[in-house]
Structures are given as C-alpha cells and as structure tokens.
Amino acid sequence: MAFIKKSTDAASTGADRVAERDFAGLIAQLDDADPATRRWAARDLLVFPAATAALVARLKREDDRSVREFILTSLTRLGDEIAVAGLVEWLRSEDAVMRNEAIEAMKALPDEVAPIMGGLLSDPDPDVRIMAVNVLESLRHPHVEDWLIDVIDNDSVINVCGTAVDLLGEVGSPAARASLLRLRERFPAEPYIRFATDLALKRIGEA
Amino acid sequence: MRKITISDDDFLKFQEFFYRKTGIQFETSKRYFVDKRLVERIEATENDSFRGYFTMLRFQSSGNELQALVNLMTINETYFFREEYQFHCLVNSILPDLVARKKDKSPIRIWVIPSSSGEEAYSIAMCLVERWPDINDWDVEIISSDIDTKILNQARAGVYSERSVKHVPRNYLQKYFRETPAGFQLNDDLRSAVEFTRVNLMEAADVRSYRNFDVIFCRNLLIYFDDISRKQAAETFYDALHPGGFICLGHSESMSRISSLYKIRKFPEAIVYQKPGDRK
Ligand SMILES: C[S@@+](CC[C@H](N)C(=O)[O-])C[C@H]1O[C@@H](n2cnc3c(N)ncnc32)[C@H](O)[C@@H]1O
C-alpha cells in the first residue's frame, strides 16, 4: 500500500492566504496579478460590509471569469444597495455571459431586488425589461405575479410581453386571466402571443 | 423546572444564525427536529430560556457550544460503498486520466468532505487497494473532513454497525474487518490510510489551507445548503483543486445548476466535474 499522511498544514504553502487578511490588505489584493489571490480576497471581503463598492469597481475591470464568479457571490452575500446597483449595471452589459451572471446573482436576493424591480421593468431598454422578467422567474417574492400582470397590461414590446406570458403560465393564478385576455386582443395579428396566452390560460384554468 | 419552549421568533433567529455559520438551512418543516435539539442544549447548559442560551451561543469565544449544537443538528447518515459507481469511475477513469497527466509523480491527493463517520473515505481506500492496478506506483493521500467533531472521532475509531457494512463485498469484509462485540472493526492498515480533520466548509478560515487536491468527493452535503452556499462551496473547491482536478457530487446534486466554473466530464461510469486547465 502506498497511503501517506501529511498534516494539512504541511501540505499547504499558503502564505499568501494568511498574509494581510485585514480590510485594507484584502482590498489591495483585489488588484493582485494572481487570480487565486484575487479570488481569495473577494471571498474574505465577505465579512466587511464596507467592501461592496470596491468589489463592484473590481468587477468592472475583472477579465478572469473565475474571479468574477467569486466577486458576484460575495456581492450577493453582502446584498446591500450598492451591490444591487452594481448587479443592475452588470445586467446592461453587452456580454451575454455577464448578463446571465447578474441574473443568477439577483435571483438570490429577493428582498433587495424587490424595491428596484418596478424600475427595471419600466427601463427604456426592452432587453433590460426582458432580463428583469427572467430574474422574476426564480425570484421567490410574493409580488412576482403582480409584476408580470403589470408587464402584460402595459408593455408595448411584444417580446417583453411574450416572456412575461410564458412565466405567467407557470406561476399565474386566476388573477391573471383578465389581463391575459386583454393582451390577446392587443396583439390580434401575432400568432405567438395567441398561442402563449392560450397555453397560459389553460394552465391557470387547470390549477 | 419550567418547560422550555421555542417561539416562532426564536426559531427564525436561530435558523438565520445557524445558516450563516454552517450553510445548512432548516425549513419550517424541520421545526420539530430543531426545537427538540435546541431544548436539549438549553437544558444541558443550564440556561432557562432560549434567549440566554442564544446569547451564550453567539458570544462564547471558545465556540464549544456551537460545536456541541452542530454535532447534534447534523445528519450523519452514510454507509460503506454508497453510490459505488463513482468508486468504479475513480479507479477505471479518473485516476488513469490523472496519472497520464501527472508527470511529477507527486502524491495523489483526495479530499472527502463531508466525511461523516468515515465510510466513504475508507471505501475509497479499499477500492484503491483492491481495484486500482497502479496503487503500488503512486503515493495517495486521503483527507476526510467534517464539521462534526463527534462523528470524526467515530470515524477514527473505525467501528461499524451491521447496517453500515451491509454493502461491503464478503471477501473485503473478511479481509479488512474484525468482528467485535462493539461491531465490525476496520483493521489498522486501512485506518491509518485516512487522515480525519475538522473543517466547516462555509468558513473561509477553515478551508484556506486546503489545496493541491486531485480529486474531491463532496456527496450529500450540498443538498442541505441553499443556492448561494452551494455556489460558495463550489468556489472553495475551485481553489482547492489542481487545474484538471475532479469533483464527484452525490447523484442528486448537479454542478451545472450551481456554478459554471467547471467542465462536465462524462465517463462511462459517471458524470463528474473538472476544473479547467491541464496541469503539465
Ligand atoms: C449525510 S452526511 C454525508 C456523508 C457522506 N459524504 C455520504 O455521502 O454518505 C452529511 C455530513 O455533512 C456534515 N456537514 C454539514 N454541514 C457541514 C459543513 N458546513 N462543513 C462540513 N461538513 C458539514 C455533517 O456533519 C454530516 O456528517
């Protein structure tokens, strides 16, 4: 047999993980050349509520995916207004991967995201509105259905309404019925909307 | 003595605190389980209410009471050769893939977390000796970690119930165990093959020194975590692994839903996850 035992301390030469774990030291390490050091700084900053601004700032410059994941997780854990604002900015990114990262992070923050949901759903950019509906998909919050009803009653862009209808089919209750019927009348020439609203109505009816 | 009760408010407070400390989230449906154990600790520490006990729990600098509570609250259910197909995957696919790339002949390091009473780590050791032809050419280091100190002591002692060894092949049972009045005792050779350590996976300070692993087994722990804690666990493993290293999760757990840091590797025996970037 060739089983060996070493103490885990000996196995790790983790000097860089032990040094300067105070606030200022960790903030400085966010700019370190080594991604592993940056990842650990992002993670350890979790216990400092004041770190959100620095994390958001780093996120914007960060080009390593793995480091970005760590930063987003810490931001999600810290979850204050600055963090949420940082995530919203991320949502506007041109890069689909980054947008998905933001959506994932926001889903975990129902209470923090709720107050800004109205704003996101009436954002001038229809893509942001669609992504906001995507966030609603797994945001465990009691207002989800109301927001969706509001979207299909008021949004003028068909793709935004379509995304909301799909989701209403899953989470909707009889309360959504009247709005679904209205939507179908609003876009009479759109087979997709007809199909999606019918499906949603059927699902709601069965529930 | 006055009967101690846990109010809804107390439960919420405790739930939040325990979650932050361990990543484990007790749903309201677990209320009975949680209340019973809380009352047990409140009485054992001679507190007369939740309030006093909770203060002690939070501010005790030794952390002993939190550890005692963790030992009570954790679900340690496990047995030898649980989800055995992954051990086949380890010896038939993962290790051959690893050693083909591992030019420096440094030891193969395997981390089992959560360990519980040690069955998983010992099963791995047995499979390596019995089924991996290259075992004589390589040094292997197996570290098995858990948050629960009591269960770790059991693991070190290596005495198991009939139920726990039920899936051990007959010939292995004869070869590696001895029947004692206390149960089936694992032989010294195998017991010395595994190092047991106390680690809270959610505590950055605990996991920081765990690195340079080739394979991590993390089975049947993440199911007790919520999404964000799972993600954090996946990130911890990322830095604990060598580039090209592997993670094996329990059959009901999927990394794709947790984090995008890993590549999916489909081997004939199982799907496992790999940290990108081959090691030279
Ligand atoms: C059901 S057992 C799984 C044992 C084994 N891996 C298996 O699959 O059979 C779960 C174990 O997770 C441990 N655990 C719970 N929270 C933990 C944490 N935050 N860090 C490390 N271990 C934890 C518990 O003490 C328990 O022993």
Question: How helical, in percent, are the residues of chain A?
Answer: over 70%
Main sheet attributes: strand count, strand direction, barrel closure of chain A: none
Strand fraction of chain A: under 5%
Structural class from helices and strands of chain B? alpha/beta
Category by helix and strand content of chain A: mainly alpha
What is the straight-line distance between the termini of chain B? 67 Å
Give an account of the 3D structure.
Chain A starts with 7 loop residues before the first helix and ends with a helix. Residues 9-16 of chain A have low confidence and may be disordered. Chain A has 207 residues and is an all-alpha fold. Chain A has helices at 8-11, 15-18, 23-29, 35-44, 52-61, 65-78, 81-91, 96-107, 110-121, 126-137, 144-154, 158-171, 177-186, 191-206. Chain A has 14 helices and no strands. Chain B is of the alpha/beta class and 280 residues long. Chain B is 42% helix and 18% strand. Chain B contains 11 helices and 10 strands. In chain B, helix 2 packs antiparallel against helix 4 (64-73). At the A-B interface, helix 1, helix 4 and helix 6 of A face strand 2, strand 6 and helix 11 of B. The site of S-adenosylmethionine has 25 residues of chain B, from loops. Residues 22-24, 74-78, 82, 113-114, 116, 120, 146-148, 151, 199-202, 219-221, 250 of chain B line the site of S-adenosylmethionine.
